[in-house]
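pasting for ref
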Amino acid sequence: MEAPTEPSNVNVNSRVPDTGTTTSSLMQYDNVYFGDNPMVQLKVGAKEKIFYVHQGLICESSPFFRAAFTGGFKENSGSITLEEDDPVIFGHIVQWLYRGKLETLSKVEVDTGFDYWMTLFQLYVLADKYGIRLLKNAVMGLLFQTHDRRKEKNTETHKPPQQSCITYVYENTAPGSQLRRFLVTYYVWHIDLGWFSLSSTIEWLETIPAFGAELPQAFASRAMGASSPFNDRSSFNESIRD
């Protein structure tokens, strides 16, 4: 199937994105004291890669882990197995918890192109799974940062998220997800319209009907003169208040 491309006359939004990666996550949790804070063990993936994390930190950031380690159904004695998760992606969560930055998702990794898009989508989905809203916002910031690099022809990230990314996102998120909204907006505003008329595109859209169903409304909004939702990037962030 032919990969989607962007028309050459699309204006790049020059607004500098708020990546959400410069504010330490530790600063968000004033009630976490590390002096007498116990460590918990997380066994991640089929091979059970072990991560040790301060209980107070991970419980304060995630309602899932708060329930697992301190809630009424506590039964793990300071250890939990997350067999379905990717330890590489989970490692980014641990790094963010302690450093407040996704440092290993560096410019070097940006230059790998499609794998970088997928890594960000996988990280967002995992953060969503465990209810880590601050991290979701940080990842969304990196998605916009990658979006803004798309005209740098010396990198692979000038290419849009590919069909495998869209399939992954729609298989792992619920309707109304901001991640879905990001992809729909990207494709409606930045993909050459000719790509949508290809028979291979039409066939592929039939395999992911939820994505195909959201495109017409977004196209209609654009045709009626609405501005790109990307102009209000804060609307893609999760509220950090209950």
